[in-house]
Amino acid sequence: MSHHSFGLVFLLASPIVEELLFRGSILEKERLAPKYAILASALIYGALNPGENIPYFLFGLLLGYIYYRSGSLSLCILSTMIMNGIPVLLTICYPDVRSVYELMGVLPFIGLVVLSVLLSAGCLYGLNRSFGVPAWQVSRNMDDTSGGVLINE
Known about the structure:
By secondary structure, the chain is mainly α. 71% of the residues lie in helices and 5% in strands. The protein contains six helices and two strands. A two-stranded antiparallel sheet has the order 1-2. Helix 2 runs antiparallel to helix 3 and helix 3 (53-70) runs antiparallel to helix 4 (73-93). It starts with a helix and ends with a strand.
């Protein structure tokens, strides 16, 4: 398998498997309260990514929140594809560079991190505004009388 083919498989298959395993199977179980399920999922996600435990733990918290807020695993898969796609793209475009620091230096990297945090905060704000009620509070059953969705309080 060539270097580019491996990158493509990593980019497409890995996010689907990761999200089905970490968000789909762990967070679908309603044995834990949402915040504890998100925390457990993020801890396992971070622990299984050696060398980058803390960033993956934080990303796992974000993905868990996105999943519970939206009820959509596809948003988590897309987010993971984007996160995995950046290093794959950099590896393809710059095969001789060993790290992002080497490519852009420390100061621009810090700026990129700040920009990422601001964009994430903006996306979370938009997500909160577009979904009035968190997905875990919406019943899967329809209200027979009004035809609307029941809200679990």
